[in-house]
Amino acid sequence: MMDLLWTQAVFWALVGIALLVIGLYALIVHAHLLRKVLALNIMSSGVFVLFIALARRAPREAAGGADAPAQVVPAPPDPVPQAMVLTGIVVAVAATGLLLALIVRLRSVAGRTTLDNRADD
Amino acid sequence: MRWDPGGLDWTLAVVFLPLAGALLCFLVPRRAAPVGLGAAVLTAAATFGLTLAVLADGVQRTALGGWAAPLGILWRADELSVALMAMTATVGVAVSFYAGAYFRDEHTERAFFWPLWLLLWMALNALFLSADLFNLYVTLELVGFAAASLTALGGNAAALAGAVRYLMVSVLGSLSYLLGVALVYHACGTVDITLAATRMGDAPGAAMHAATGAIIAGLLLKTALFPLHFWLPPAHGSAPAPVSALLSALVIKASFYLLLRLWLDMLGGGRWLAELLGVLGAAAVIWGSLLALRQTRLKLLIAYSTVAQVGYLFIAFPLSLAGNGAAWTGALYLALAHGLAKAAMFMSAGSLIRFGGHDRFAELDRPVPRLPLTLTAFTLAGVSIMGLPPSGGFIGKWLLLESAFRQGRYGLAAVVLLGGVLAAAYVFKVVGHAFTPGPREHRGLRVPAVMEWSALLLAVGAILLGLGLPLLRPLLQVGPESSGAGSAAAVGAWG
Questions:
Q1: Of A118, B51, B255, B272, which sits 20 to 30 A from B43 (CA to CA)?
Q2: Residue spans per domain, chain B
């Protein structure tokens, strides 16, 4: 039971890291700005999943009674990271909204949805 | 000395005054300029009050809403944060006056500049006050959002593309930082900086090493240390001049402050990490200066100069390993002097653009006889950037050099000196062209006197900063062993 819970936490942490890496890869490879925004969102999901996975507390052994053997009870997860992730989601939504607004504006002004590679203009 | 009339809390005032001003400007866009200017002056006054309170009574703490630290949000104003808030206020007031004249005839830009700039100021002050890692993340994002929106203010394609790139980099940097915060919380069970440092103990585990890496990488991206500087020149070069001044002078310093604060109080990264930062800083000084020399547009030249100046701040990291806090004091001095000088430079560039209609400085027709104040401001700011006495830049470089020689780090000392020579080259390149007639004679447009004077006063401030060393020393003593022997020697050398 205890091993299983820990394995689950490690599994979700690995999922978070995988999302992070996939997002970073997409952010670098894709030129289209909408894809970059999606990549950033995948990355932030990765961080959030990792944050939540790390919040899981190790289960503790509960003292058993006279006839019941000692058993492992799962500890409730730490609420603080969950509050932080909620704030993080709000921030991510705000960032996405601002980025999309800027991109729409860029498209109507310049007619393109990519960044120029030339940095000097 | 009590500067506390009627139980007024200065730490609350420096954050909520600009916030209230921003909301008011947003509600009455027609009156945005006078309202914004009023809020700016009040915020600066509150910052002054907070500085005096910290100097008199030491560290100021405020628990927001009366909730204590582990559960609630704690604000903490110490010498380091007050020094940066004071610089923000000085630059902020000058830029506010400048912007009032700069945006006088542009109604949309004026209506959006004031709320965004005051929000940026609020976020900066909140960042300098925050004492826990997660609150710092939120303020870091607020700074990034406000700064990116300000970058887009010009509304043309270059400004929008610069803003998009800037915002993406900013969000990426914050995500990396947040990843580090998650790992710190996992390792220490808290996000309070001081508490995390004590719980971490002397032997940080693997999670803390990963956290250090993630936090530092994210903040380096936001501070634009070479080779992560690619986003800075397009963003700073394409924004309107007052915005460029704010971005280069203040926003860059916010992430540097955070890096320095965490390095000193919590991470205390290992030797190899400090050496790596030093090497990147040295590379930034050389590379940024060389690219600045190659620019033909004034604002891009100034932006690349920022890349170089950021490098200096990181040269202090390896120098601080052995010995006293003189290297830190030097880096902070450079940060403050750069804030004033770089804002003055961008403001002068804005006046030149207003005068000539563009910023290809080789083609400007005799600006010196027609805009003497602006060119004086640019040159005085350049003196501080080069590090000539008696400017603030000189003191900062002197402290770095002294620290480098004392430890026998001649390579770093050579980079500091070479950077000064290259800075002289690119400043004089601009000043030289300013005396000569352009290829075509043109009538310059009139530049409002406020724009010229605010830049000049800021540049004079950068020079005077060098004379204020005895006054500022108590604010700039950081580091665990800030015995101050080195800086005392520097004072004696020419004080």
A1: B255
A2: 292-495
Contact residues for A94 (Cβ-Cβ < 8 A; gap 6+): B141, B145
pLDDT band at B174 (very low <50, low <70, confident <90, very high): very high
What tens digit of pLDDT does each residue of B142-151 get?
A: 999 999 999 9
- Six token digits for residue B285: 């000084």
Q: Do B233 and A84 touch (CB under 8 A)?
A: no
Contacts of A118 (CB under 8 A, 6+ apart): none
Residues B56-75: tens digit of each pLDDT: 888 888 887 777 766 678 88
Domains of chain A: 2-110 (1.10.287.3510)
pTM of the predicted model as reported, rounded to 2 decimal places = 0.90
pLDDT of the residue at A8: 77
Q: How many CB pairs under 8 A join A and B?
A: 90
Residue B158 has its nearest CB partner, among A55, A91, A121, at A121
Q: What CA–CA distance (Å, rounded) separates B461 from B24?
A: 31
ipTM value, please give it.
0.86
Greater confidence (B434 vs B86) lies with B86
- Residue B96's closest CA among B461, B455, B463? B455
Interchain proximity B145–A94, CB inside 8 Å: yes
Q: Across the interface, which of A40, A50, A105 has its CB nearest the CB of B182?
A: A50
Mutate to test the interface with A, among B175, B222, B299, B358 (most CBs of A within 10 A): B175
Question: Six-digit token pair at B70?
Answer: 């582990």
